[in-house]
């Protein structure tokens, strides 16, 4: 169950697909040497491989325990968390002004993926803390930033996001937690929040809860939600910790996976603290704009969860591949004197290739999205910023929804590759299968991502960004056609299939966009029946685009197949075209059937 | 987490798809009244719902414990197992001459599915016992049958199958357990067997192990394997139990799912018993024919595991549907005054419809296969028997591979439908996701089933059975075309899509068969690269066939849509056509790409 950070693939994606070189040309990163990128990545590999990865199984088997509101996390997590803080990993992509390192998002995407792969349950603590940092940098006052951000960045404190309540999951309009103003600029918060990741633990001195609640006279629905800071311990002006606040862990959940991560039920205003009844809170930004702030923070969190999917896919793939090389069983299909390692069996190759193809494609898409985010926030020209930010916004629900759905498939194939061993917990493959299962649910289910993709990201701009992307794909398709024409025998058959399937997939994608644009007004239900298929189709074709670009690099860089990495990459791209891209047309067919399905269902009991 | 046996669907499948009426016309079942079928099914529903289902979560949370070779199972399993034995469920399909009830396999398929759905971990004990009964009835001597079968049938004793060794999983040629003849007609067995389901437990007085081992001078490979009976306690001629035999449980596994089922490592010949060193064994049938006997027994076991997949799909679907009706969240997509039960949201409908469609289609295929088995073993005319047995043989790897792969998708969608609740173990949805994960692995992985389907079941007869099936599908397609022509507006759009997609799926199926037939000699690897896609394609089209037949029944039986069951069935069939059948053409595309993929991989490190 060792883990090796996929440095070679990151380098390939940075250099050939996501344009790290272009990012470093921007003034914002003028101080960043390209050597630094590699140095950070290598250091991150050492940290995640040697310090974090060994705690993964430990967290699964010795999960946190809760007693009287006190949560004790897995012992080995303490050392890893201390090293994480000291290494400055939390601040990697954040401004130097607040204690960060001001490095590109693209780089942070890679270091995060490694952290997620090394120990997903552990990584949730930094992931949530990052969301809090993001929200405070965006909407907090200077005093709030000064008080909280550096301590969060240094790993002395951690952060949480408190949205969900028992009656308010995907539908935040139902949030009922109350915030009562005290006349001194502070509030008292009352209510119950559930599914609070690292809501209580003993890793850090303090926990900074960001809480969605309603002020007393707030409008109903999502427009009456405000965002509050509720620290576990009140913080004095000099940064020292004061009274225990009135926020309490009632219990932690017994979950299918990510056992190492304590998921808390938090009670606000249970009157057990030193501050009297009600959790002392300060407002972030303006009243009733809480959801708006949350959404910006959620964008980052959703993107990060997508990258968690890629991390778990990478880890599951590494483990399955190692097992398949080691396990000798049955003769080769062409005949062989003795039994061979199972990696030689065609169906094991199909499974491993599927795992590789989905992992590498989702990684490439996520990295390109991260680069768009860097351009969108840091490029000197506004036009370029706006264009790239719109691309990033379109890609976030896809990175989240598609990468995590793929991770379920990959983790399941990982178990399957092990045969009976895969079902034995000590093998480790089963943990990825269990851990991954939350990824398509938290930070918005795949259906929520698909609603976002259809509603806010496709309909609102009349399909502009989506069709811009397909136009760009057609440019790559033309390059591919030229490559087919001049290819050697080694590459020609693979490139030919790739071209054929990429073209079909682009057609399917464009037709789906038009279906969404043309039918929503008249028959919204039939469009939303196909919303998840549309999201998945977009993911497959965007992944295919990056795999085609990768194949073109392979052809250009190596006329022979001596380079093992490039040879693998090319084979994986061909496999993606041959086995994965055909899913796009299939999904388009289902999207077209939205109307007949929703009509048939009106006569059934699913209404 | 209640369970309701799907009696209405069984009745529909019996009456309209699997031809229970025809079976009961055969002399073998002349004593069986059709009332009896319903009475048995009702009684089975009561038993599985009230007695077995409540033990499911209990077994998951309080799994068996092993200490010094003694395994204590979950306490509540004892009562359920006693009731199982007393109810005569073990002997339902077995000959009356040996204590069974001589009822059709088709009926046993339904009662088994209910048992599997109620508690999969519990059901494995009867499932394995059934395999032992089957093997002894097939190859045992009269004395062996007399000694063991009635006690197994009554639930006083249980049975196990001992194939796997650490170095011999899918590849039984590597089995190295030894059997040494003692000169008195008995043998002593030495070796280690792993993954032995219910290999040790305290549910019954005795455990009858069937063990694959090699006699001293046996040839190497699978042709040197013999089958032995090793009882935990030796059995005297009068059936009383004697000395403790030299077979010992070294440990039980810590598994992802089916926690209630003890999976044992068994040591034969560890010299801790009362019989001296070596487990006392008797040979079943002839030496070196062990694998042959095992295969016949395995056919039944593989079929049963397929039905386990259907059972878990049914259970997961019931739970998700109940939750979706109960959980109120977000407004309707068309707009609504308040939040609605999530069953009204299009993507939840898509998930629940997928779950229903796959469950009902796999059930219908399995029941048709079971009926073919009844015809194949009981029909008075040899021609009819042979034809049906060949159909059954073709369908077994599909029922096993396809139904279990579908159950993974269904169980995963079951978790997803619950949102965050699905990840909390106490909800129960996660247990099905964990339990189901073994189904595509044990009794032969999906790849092993696919090898069987390609090699023994398609190539060996030149595709005859496969093409016979597709011919029969085209007859149904013609009926469907006529139904489209005369359909009312309620049915017409759905039938039209169903016709279009069923035709495409049959085309894809036939083309795949021809691809397999035409390419294996020249390029076996490219064919086997697509073996699992071929198996899945066959499953989807066979499932589609039964859903089309179901839709035709719905049209015939109800011109209105008043009947809730028929309306649901029709909607599910339409959904299957619109959303599931398009997978067939997609899989065909991948099958065609076997060559380009296997060529590309030769340059990669997956070799």
TrEMBL record, chains A, B:
Molecular function (Gene Ontology), one example: flavin adenine dinucleotide binding
Highest rank taxon of the organism: Bacteria
EC class name: oxidoreductase
Domain called Acyl-CoA dehydrogenase/oxidase N-terminal: residue spans: 78-155
Gene3D superfamilies: Acyl-CoA dehydrogenase/oxidase, N-terminal domain, Butyryl-CoA Dehydrogenase, subunit A, domain 2, Butyryl-CoA Dehydrogenase, subunit A, domain 3
Domain Acyl-CoA oxidase/dehydrogenase middle: start-end pairs: 161-264
Keyword tags: FAD, Flavoprotein, Oxidoreductase
Pfam families, alphabetized: Acyl-CoA_dh_1, Acyl-CoA_dh_C, Acyl-CoA_dh_M, Acyl-CoA_dh_N
Catalytic function, reaction form: 3-(methylsulfanyl)propanoyl-CoA + oxidized [electron-transfer flavoprotein] + H(+) = 3-(methylsulfanyl)acryloyl-CoA + reduced [electron-transfer flavoprotein]
Coiled-coil blocks: none
Residues covered by the Acetyl-CoA dehydrogenase-like C-terminal domain: 480-595
Keyword Oxidoreductase set for record: yes
Domain Acyl-CoA dehydrogenase/oxidase C-terminal: 288-453
EC number: 1.3.99.41
Cofactor names: FAD
Functional summary from the UniProt entry: Involved in the assimilation of dimethylsulphoniopropionate (DMSP), an important compound in the fixation of carbon in marine phytoplankton, by mediating the conversion of 3-(methylthio)propanoyl-CoA (MMPA-CoA) to 3-(methylthio)acryloyl-CoA (MTA-CoA).
Family named by the database record: Belongs to the acyl-CoA dehydrogenase family.
Alphabetized PANTHER family for the sequence: ACYL-COA DEHYDROGENASE (PTHR42803), BROAD-SPECIFICITY LINEAR ACYL-COA DEHYDROGENASE FADE5 (PTHR42803:SF1)
Protein's recorded name: 3-methylmercaptopropionyl-CoA dehydrogenase
Native species: Jezberella montanilacus
């Amino acid at each position: 169950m060792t883990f090796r950070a996929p440095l070679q693939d990151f380098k390939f994606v940075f250099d050939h697909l996501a344009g790290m070189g272009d990012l470093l040309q921007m003034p914002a990163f003028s101080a960043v040497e390209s050597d630094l990128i590699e140095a950070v990545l290598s250091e991150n590999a050492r940290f995640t491989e040697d310090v974090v990865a060994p705690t993964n199984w430990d967290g699964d088997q010795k999960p946190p325990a809760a007693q009287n509101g006190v949560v004790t996390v897995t012992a080995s997590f303490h050392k890893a968390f201390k090293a994480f803080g000291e290494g400055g990993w939390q601040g990697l992509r954040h401004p130097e002004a607040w204690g960060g390192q001001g490095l590109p998002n693209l780089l942070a995407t890679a270091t995060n993926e490694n952290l997620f792969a090394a120990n997903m349950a552990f990584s949730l603590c930094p992931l949530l803390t990052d969301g809090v940092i993001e929200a405070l940098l965006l909407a907090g006052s200077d005093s709030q930033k000064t008080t909280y951000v550096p301590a969060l960045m240094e790993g002395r404190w951690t952060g949480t996001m408190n949205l969900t309540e028992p009656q308010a999951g995907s539908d935040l309009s139902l949030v009922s937690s109350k915030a009562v103003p005290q006349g001194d600029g502070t509030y008292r918060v009352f209510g119950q929040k559930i599914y609070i990741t690292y809501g209580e633990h003993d890793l850090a001195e303090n926990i900074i809860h960001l809480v969605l609640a309603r002020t007393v006279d707030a409008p109903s629905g999502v427009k009456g939600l405000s965002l509050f800071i509720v620290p576990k311990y009140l913080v004095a002006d000099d940064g020292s910790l004061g009274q225990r606040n009135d926020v309490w862990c009632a219990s932690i959940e017994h979950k299918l996976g990510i056992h190492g991560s304590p998921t808390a039920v938090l009670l606000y205003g249970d009157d057990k603290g030193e501050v009297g009844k009600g959790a002392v809170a300060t407002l972030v930004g303006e009243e009733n704009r809480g959801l708006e702030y949350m959404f910006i923070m959620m964008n980052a969190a959703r993107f990060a969860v997508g990258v968690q999917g890629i991390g778990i896919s990478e880890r599951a793939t590494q483990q399955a591949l190692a097992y398949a090389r080691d396990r000798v069983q049955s003769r080769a299909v062409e005949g062989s004197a003795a039994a061979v390692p199972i990696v030689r069996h065609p169906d094991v190759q199909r499974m491993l290739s599927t795992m590789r193809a989905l992992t590498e494609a989702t990684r490439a898409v996520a990295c390109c999205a991260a680069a768009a985010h860097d351009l969108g926030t840091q490029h000197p020209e506004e036009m370029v910023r706006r264009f790239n930010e719109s691309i990033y916004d379109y890609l976030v629900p896809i990175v989240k929804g598609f990468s995590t759905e793929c991770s379920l498939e990959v983790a399941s194939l990982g178990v399957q590759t092990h045969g009976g061993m895969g079902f034995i917990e000590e093998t480790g493959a089963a943990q990825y299968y269990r851990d991954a299962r939350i990824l398509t649910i938290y930070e918005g289910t795949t259906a929520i991502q698909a609603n976002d993709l259809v509603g806010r990201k496709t309909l609102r701009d009349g399909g502009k960004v989506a069709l811009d992307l397909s136009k760009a794909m057609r440019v790559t398709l033309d390059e591919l056609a030229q490559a087919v024409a001049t290819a050697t025998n080694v590459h020609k058959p693979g490139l030919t299939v790739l071209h054929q399937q990429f073209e079909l997939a682009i057609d399917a994608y464009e037709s789906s966009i038009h279906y969404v644009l043309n039918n929503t007004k008249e028959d919204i239900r039939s469009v939303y029946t196909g919303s998840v298929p549309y999201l998945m189709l977009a993911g497959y074709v965007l992944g295919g685009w990056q795999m085609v670009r990768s194949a073109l690099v392979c052809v250009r860089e190596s006329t022979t197949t001596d380079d093992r990495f490039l040879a693998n990459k090319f084979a994986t791209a061909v496999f993606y075209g041959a086995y994965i891209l055909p899913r796009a047309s299939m999904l388009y067919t289902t999207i077209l059937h939205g109307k007949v399905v929703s009509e048939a269902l009106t006569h059934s009991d699913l209404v």
